[in-house]
Amino acid sequence: MRTLLRPQFFAVIGVLLLSGCSQSLNAPVEYYQFEQTIKPMQRSSTDTIAQLRVTTVSLRGALNNRGIAMKLDNNQVNAANYHLWSEAPDQMLTASAHQALFTALDNWMVVKGLPVITDKDQQSYYELEYELHHFNGDNQGNADISGLWRLYYTSFEKGRSLKEIHYFSEVSPLIDDDYEGLVASLELNWQTINKQVAATISALSHE
């Protein structure tokens, strides 16, 4: 098992960042993404009870960086130079959340973003916002996704109102002690969070 994410690794990375020597290593750049399997699914408005619109995930500060983030001892977060997300994290997380919620909420019309409203029926919908404060590994060998989500409801008669706010924190040991293990662990945490969100939203249909 590789030991890239142990405390010694962070100490070495810190020295390299401060000295600028990391630029001279000529290490190959490696790209990562969530391995979420896409399953054939379809849904029509006539078979659903409500519409849920998933807005683009918001990440605090430098977390929305192509370099995979690591939190160090002194509250410092560093972004890797040669281990990068294959796309911007906010886009990857939004696509993953949309697919997870679409799968779990089989009687909801789950869409990304805010599509054009074409009739009165479409002016009543739920809207989900994620705000991530942590999206990183740490020097204790964990993957951490923490933050909050908000659920709004918009109706033609009353406009937009806030329904619920939930804080969450999913911290789990790495599957493997390397960047691949960190990415896989972050994905599992994100899936867990979205399953919890789906369970909460699904309960709305029984109110």
Automatic annotation (TrEMBL):
Sorted keywords for this record are:
Signal
Q: What domain of life does the UniProt record list for this protein's source?
A: Bacteria
Q: What sequence ranges are listed for the domain ABC-type transport auxiliary lipoprotein component?
A: 32-198
Q: Which residues form the signal peptide?
A: 1-27
**Pfam families from the entry?**
ABC_trans_aux (PF03886)
InterPro entries recorded:
ABC_trans_aux
- Ranges annotated as spanning the membrane: none
Q: Kindly list any coiled-coil regions of this protein.
A: none
The protein's matches in PROSITE patterns, at most eight in alphabetical order, are given as: PROKAR_LIPOPROTEIN
Its name, as the record gives it, is: Membrane integrity-associated transporter subunit PqiC
* Lineage summary: Bacteria, Pseudomonadati, Pseudomonadota, Gammaproteobacteria, Alteromonadales
